[in-house]
Write a structure and sequence with these properties.
Blueprint lengths: L1 H20 L15 H8 L3 E5 L3 H5 L20 H10 L4 E7 L25 H12 L2 E7 L21 H14 L5 E5 L9 H11 L4 E4 L9 E2 L29 E7 L24 H14 L2 E5 L10 H14 L16 E3 L23 E2 L7 E20 L5 E10 L2 E8 L5 E21 L4 E8 L1
């Protein structure tokens, strides 16, 4: 009897191990349940959320961090998940979008599929579990980012790697099953196709997700969009669902009739030199931050078009949000709650403007595009130009004491001057050598009708998103 009992116990234990290791299998190919208008309205009501990117790239200083075998690279001195969620609440946010796994395969939850996970790192904590609990405490919803492929996975059979990404459809499904069954309701999944689909096509991925959580929306930042509920907008902007240009540079030619909702996302860090954009990576960036007024303007745009706006905010080496991020987001929250009012519009907004030259004589790059108050438009000088000026006519003498300049994408200006016209002479108000991100210039107020940004030297064609003047 004892030997039979021992044998039975052994068989049961072996069965449990096999079942735990058994990869998830795709469900029968039946159509997912239709998305209801009520569910769409529920997600639209979230409006504004915090996209949290925290992984190897935080410590490597690079956007992508391949080839890591030693988990010691991820060595935060702590992790204050409650600070993240509390700040989101103070900012008037409705959800958090959390990076569960980047292309390097490092999992920020206690997965059973691999040892490349946060609980095997020096931190030794299930960050996603703690985040879920904090979200529940503060009444914040949870969405997930998930890289479909990984660099360390095997080569696709008979195919080519996308950005060196391999395939492992069984592990992809097993990881998604853990996320969707062990961490509560998920509002949507932001699938990153940058290194491929991991060997499970997008249609099958949608089917698999919906078989576990039918109300979870699914979106892909590139690749096949058919069946996707949500249009993702990496580096996008507010805009209607039928305007693909609002989805940013990676999705502007992709669309699906199944879209019910548009999301857009970009980092709180303005364009800068060195380090990463989506991850915290260098302490010398600790004073770089987009202004609360811009973030609030895009929040209003999201509300206008029924979008959701995912603002990327990367925790630092300690595992906390930067002080400047917390201050800025609290200010956005005050705008949202009506405790602060936006300052008056710039004196230059919508005023007549002209320039030394225009890119290919194209009206889309006219001087007026730099004073229209919309950052996705811009003035561009003629091809090959390495200097140029942009002039604004305020219509009447106006007392001006501040200027804002936003240069396109990456610093290219080497010398510039902000000037006003007195009689027939242009006089300097401010001079400098670089324009990186939103640059504010304060000076002794002057009264004049004509002002200009004079780019004296540049490494590339002068291109300005905004040149605005303030009373």
């Amino acid at each position: 009897m004892k030997s039979r009992l021992a044998l039975l116990q052994t068989l049961l234990a072996a069965s449990a191990i096999l079942n735990a290791a058994e990869p998830a299998t795709p469900p029968p190919q039946t159509a997912p349940p239709p998305v209801t208008a009520a569910r769409v309205a529920e997600l639209q009501g979230l409006r504004f959320g915090m996209f949290i990117c925290w992984s190897f790239s935080t410590f490597s200083g690079k956007e992508w961090t391949p080839g890591i075998t030693n988990l010691d690279l991820f060595h935060p001195t702590g992790c204050d998940v409650e600070q993240w969620v509390r700040t989101a609440k103070e900012a008037g946010m409705g959800y958090i979008l959390f990076l569960t796994k980047h292309h390097d395969g490092f999992c920020l939850w206690d997965t059973r599929t691999t040892d490349r996970k946060v609980t095997k790192s020096a931190l030794g904590r299930d960050v996603l579990r703690e985040l879920r609990q904090a979200c529940d405490k503060y009444g914040i919803k949870l969405a997930l980012y998930f890289s479909e492929g990984e660099w360390a996975w095997p080569d696709p059979p008979g195919g080519t790697r996308r950005n060196n990404g391999g395939v492992n459809p069984e592990m992809k499904q097993a990881q998604l099953k853990e996320l969707l069954t062990e961490y509560g309701p998920i509002e949507y999944i932001w699938f990153d196709y940058a290194v491929g689909d991991g060997g499970l096509a997008h249609a099958a991925t949608i089917q698999f997700v919906k078989s576990i959580q039918p109300n979870c929306f699914v979106g892909f930042n590139n690749g096949d969009q058919q069946g996707a509920d949500i249009r993702l907008g990496e580096m996008g902007r507010p805009g209607p669902l039928d305007d693909p240009s609002a989805a940013g540079p990676y999705m502007d030619k992709l669309a699906a009739p199944t879209y019910r909702l548009a999301e857009f996302t970009y980092p709180i860090l303005p364009p800068h030199e060195g380090g990463a954009m989506w991850f915290y990576s260098l302490t010398n960036h600790d004073q770089l931050c987009l202004p609360a007024e811009k973030l609030y303007a895009d929040y209003l745009g999201a509300v206008k078009f029924g979008n959701i706006f995912s603002l990327d905010v990367g925790p630092n080496y300690e595992g906390k949000l930067r002080e400047i991020d917390v201050r800025t987001l609290r200010k956005v929250g005050k705008y949202i709650r009506g405790k602060l009012r936006l300052p008056p519009a710039p004196a230059s907004q919508g005023k007549p403007a002209r320039a030394s030259s225009v890119w290919q004589n194209n009206g889309a790059y006219a001087a007026s595009a730099a004073v229209d108050g919309m950052e996705h438009t811009r003035w561009g000088a003629a091809e090959g130009a390495r200097s140029g000026w942009l002039e604004v006519d305020l219509g009447a003498p106006t007392r001006i004491g501040r200027a804002l300049v936003m240069e396109l994408a990456y610093p290219r200006t080497q010398e510039f001057a902000i000037q006003y016209k007195e009689g027939e002479t242009w006089k300097d108000l401010a001079r400098g050598t670089t324009l990186a991100g939103p640059c504010n210039f304060r000076f002794k107020p002057v009264t004049a009708q004509w002002f200009r940004l004079n780019i004296l030297r540049a490494t590339d064609t002068p291109t300005i998103e905004e040149f605005q003047l303030f009373r």
